[in-house]
Amino acid sequence: MAKIPATIVTGFLGAGKTTLIRHLLQNADGRRIALIINEFGDLGVDGGILKGCGIESCTDDDVVELSNGCICCTVADDFIPTMEALLARDTPPDHIVIETSGLALPQPLVRAFNWPGLKTKVTVDGVVTVLDGPAVAAGTFASDTDAVDAQRAADDGLDHETPLSELYADQVACADMIVVNKSDLLGDGTPALVDRLRSESRDGVQVVPATMGALPADVLLGRGQGAEDDLSARHEVHHHHHDDDDHHDDHHHAHEHGHDAFESFVVDAPEVTEPADFAAKVSGVIRDHDILRLKGFASVAGKPMRLTLQAVGPRVDHYFDRPIGDDPRGARLVVIGQAGLDRAAITAALQ
User: By CB distance 3.0 to 4.6 Å, which of 93, 106, 220, 311 could disulfide with 316?
Assistant: First the structure.
């Protein structure tokens, strides 16, 4: 049985985690998303998404079915029983999203997925770190450091001595994707901050500007990182300097609100002769054009099976999933990235 993917969302108070999650639930495209959060109230009970489920009356260990097929529960005393209860449901979720308090380090949470009761049933699809762009650019890491300190003082389980800069560094070190939120307030400073964060994070980590946490579900979910299996890489970031020829073309960052900042289009191409060569070519196109996601299907010359391609950043997975049958032969790929992609060049390169 395939493991259920879980996405961990971390970031300081005020960075926009809740806004990002609310946007995700409102644009879930039919996915049954289970949400594990610290406080129901954080979600904004008046929001249309929670209508009719009387969330105010919930006790801490309740699991609530929302009107749009999402499931919601607060982190009870222990994370593991909460997860086990979700996984034991008659209709388990398609995806689990876990919001951390923002002061808890993400690494121990990732490690918990190796617990015997969870390891075989669920996997960490990815760690998404949400940053307050203007605060990080100014070196303060959070827009309201007093509020973060007050939150820390109120939590007995935390080490009160750890400076914010170290907590921030841990969140960046553990991330598979860094969302630079409030990028509309950064203006022309966005590309420089994106470049800086790329150099501060691990290789292959995607750094994506956003406004009001508006990221397409296809960009946030389905990363397939299996983070619980590569914990050692997430403890510290080795500062690596990109070679000069490795600079991404970041001049096209869109500052429109919401989804307009992203675009997707379909490329139809001839059938593939050699899957590995094609995957390598796709990876090169992704690097050249800073594509966030690419997915699709292709036929392979002389083969009856359909080839599935899934790319998150430059990592391309490909496998045969089912017979092609009467489907037309050829390749059909969906490309997703920030607005301003050079469609003609990408199409030509893939064809």
Answer: 311
